[in-house]
Amino acid sequence: MVTVRLFVTLKPSLLDSAGRTVAGSLQKLGFDEVQGARIGKLIELQMDKFDDARMKEMCQKLLANPVIEDFRYEVVA
Amino acid sequence: MVTVRLFVTLKPSLLDSAGRTVAGSLQKLGFDEVQGARIGKLIELQMDKFDDARMKEMCQKLLANPVIEDFRYEVVA
């Protein structure tokens, strides 16, 4: 069994309104050192076997929206 | 400026229904090697300075729900 850790993030050029809200809330709570936040997804997949081409296909078909999101993944164990 | 990468995940003992749906959808698309999926959050914070105690406080007060979620973070640069 293989664990794959996938990170899906909004493309840097796009405004992340949820992240902006989180950063604003932290500042209001007194965490003035926070300058910004961006929010993405972490998806951990349990797989029988890992194949890079198939993994990429999964991301493009279902797990990420390639128009607005970037993704990267790492095989954990 | 410091970047902190925070991973918020559902505690392993809890059922992740969104993850289960994702795993089921991948299987229906023909990715039979997928056995399970769990979905969490990835939050990237830009900070003036990093302090471990304050970072923990942010997670417990706002960024994670310590009742149902685990969190861990790493300082990137």
Can you give keywords for this protein?
about 80 residues; elongated; alpha+beta; about 40% strand; homodimer; 2 helices; 3 strands; Mth169, Chain: A; about 30% helix
Summarize the helices and strands and which ones pair or pack.
The structure is a homodimer of 77-residue chains.
Chain A: E1 2-10, H1 17-28, E2 34-47, H2 52-63, E3 69-75
Antiparallel strand pairs in A: 1-2, 1-3
What is the ordering of alpha helices and beta strands of chain A?
EHEHE
- State the name of the first-level CATH class of chain A: Alpha Beta
Specify Rg of chain A, calculated over alpha carbons.
Answer: 16 Å
Q: CATH H-level name of chain A... which superfamily?
A: Phosphoribosylformylglycinamidine synthase subunit PurS
**What helical percentage do the residues of chain A reach?**
25-40%
Shape of chain A: elongated
Could you tell me the strand content of chain A as a percent range?
A: 35-45%
Number of helices of chain A: 2
Question: Mean pLDDT across all residues of chain A, rounded?
Answer: 97
Strand order of the largest sheet of chain A: 2-1-3
Oligomerization state of this entry? homodimer
Uncertain regions of chain A: pLDDT < 50 for 5+ in a row? none
Could you say what the CATH topology of chain A is called?
Mth169, Chain: A
Number of domains of chain A: 1
Q: Of all protein chain pairs, which has the greatest interface, and how many residues does each chain bring to it?
A: A-B, 37 and 37 residues
